[in-house]
From TrEMBL:
This is Aminoglycoside phosphotransferase domain-containing protein. Gene3D superfamilies: 3.90.1200.10. Residues 81-242 form the Aminoglycoside phosphotransferase domain. CDD domains: APH_ChoK_like (cd05120). The lineage of its organism: Eukaryota, Fungi, Dikarya, Ascomycota, Pezizomycotina. It comes from Dactylellina haptotyla (strain CBS 200.50) (Nematode-trapping fungus).
Length: 302
């Protein structure tokens, strides 16, 4: 019997720091003017630009943050060969916009090919994802420096709860829950007085685990050829250290979302199998938190 693998600890002090970081010795950084000029979305203030001749994609704008680049670096550093991610070449801040330079991974999204693969192939690719999710959930913090926030000790950024407005990192699950519910309470008219009745539904006795934050089919790049394999997990902008149930609730909340109108009209998840059969292959259930989480989210207006 093989002995269990020792836990892998993320050393925050080793993460690349600063607003002007270049990590590649073989790739030249395109200027910000070149990136803006090649923008396919036409928004000079923020976009995702594909520089296909360079094999590069650049994500830029005021809502792009260093933590995403640090997370990509950490996945390569700590989970190489286990969790495939685009290579991060570096980042650069120009005024209010951060430019994040990454490898352009050849392939298609799992969302794009979902209707063309059978149930067995779907199960196989979701089993691959399950191993990856387990790997990053098994990452550990310094036991003497635990927090809830983004990887480099930045405050949480999460679209669902709008906790991107949180001014600080959170020191415990209790702090997280109190902060989360405070957002709800502060939006009530008239303000709710006393402990919120839903607070008891959120146990503080849950572990803090590393979380992607947006496990949607559009964020998995898979091979064009069969057998289908995961080539990259992308879009780590909402990732960080969260209570263990958070990934489940976030994933469930995006089930009805489809980036492609054409795919949605074609019924990319019409049979409900993604929710009922395949999400359970990817990550452990947090179903006991789903109802209070969902209700709280909607009370926030999202």
């Amino acid at each position: 019997m093989s002995s269990p693998k020792p836990p892998v600890y993320i050393d925050v002090s080793k993460l690349p720091q600063g607003d002007d970081v270049w990590l590649s010795s073989t790739v030249t950084r395109p200027s910000t003017a070149e990136v803006r000029a090649c923008s396919e979305g036409g928004d000079p203030e923020g976009d995702i630009t594909f520089l296909r001749e360079l094999g590069m994609v650049v994500k830029y704008g005021p809502e792009v943050f260093v933590a995403e680049g640090q997370t990509l670096w950490a996945m390569k550093e700590y989970l190489s060969g286990v969790v495939p991610v685009p290579e991060v070449y570096g980042w650069y801040r120009e005024d209010e916009a951060l430019f994040l330079y990454m490898e352009l991974v050849d392939g298609v999204t799992l969302e794009e090919c979902w209707l063309t693969i059978d149930m067995e192939e779907r199960a196989a690719v979701c089993a691959q994802l399950g191993e990856m999710v387990t790997a990053w959930r098994d990452l550990r913090q310094d036991p003497d420096d635990q927090f809830l926030g983004q990887i480099g000790r930045q405050p949480i950024r999460d679209r669902i709860s709008h906790m991107e407005a949180a001014p600080r990192i959170l020191s415990s699950v209790e702090d997280f829950h109190d902060n989360f519910l405070f957002l709800l309470v502060s939006r009530r008219h008239p303000p709710f007085e006393g402990p919120h009745p839903w607070r008891a539904e959120f146990s503080d006795d849950v572990p803090i685990v590393f979380t992607h934050g947006d496990l949607h089919k559009s964020n998995f790049i898979v091979s064009r050829e069969k057998p289908i394999r995961i080539k990259a997990v992308i879009d780590w902008e909402q990732s960080g250290w969260f209570p263990s149930y958070w990934e489940y609730c976030k994933t469930q909340s995006t089930v009805g979302f489809c980036k492609s109108k054409k795919l949605k009209e074609a019924g990319v998840d019409k049979d409900g199998s993604w929710k009922e059969k395949f999400i359970p292959l990817i990550l452990p259930s947090g179903s006991e938190y789903w109802e209070p989480w969902f209700t709280t989210r909607h009370s926030l207006g999202y």
